[in-house]
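Standup notes
- DV: blocked on the single-chain target, sequence here:
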Amino acid sequence: MRTKSITIGFLSFIFVLVLSGCSWLTDFYIQNLTGTKKIIKINYSYPISKAIDNESGSFGFNYENGILSPRSFYKIKNPKSLEKIEVRDSSIVVELYPNSTTKIYNSHNGSWRYKIKSVEIDGTIFYPAELQNKSRYIRNDYVYKIQ
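- DV (later): unblocked, structure below
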């Protein structure tokens, strides 16, 4: 009986140890369901000027025409990239095309909620908690819809 409890305890410890090291992708998308272009300003909680060079994948702002699910978006081999209208020390402004989907942030374990200070869409400011609440959670990704 004692050997069995030690074995179960040891296996439980290994299981918890393995799971604590797991990391999963939690990308943040915005879908523009309207027929007009939308100006989006992403304000970061840290200076991004150097991070753009080091973490280019997180600042690529890939997009596709059409309202795509994260899974469909992920399957695209060569997504288009939105032009950055303005880049400042801790913010980037992009223009999102009508009826399109863009990946705003490529993150792990929901870290986009801590790295993005706010997102401004046509002058309306949204903070991460609000974006998370208003977004649709699909698998491990968050999708905010502009309607």
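- Follow-up: Residues 77 and 135 are 25 Å apart (CA to CA).
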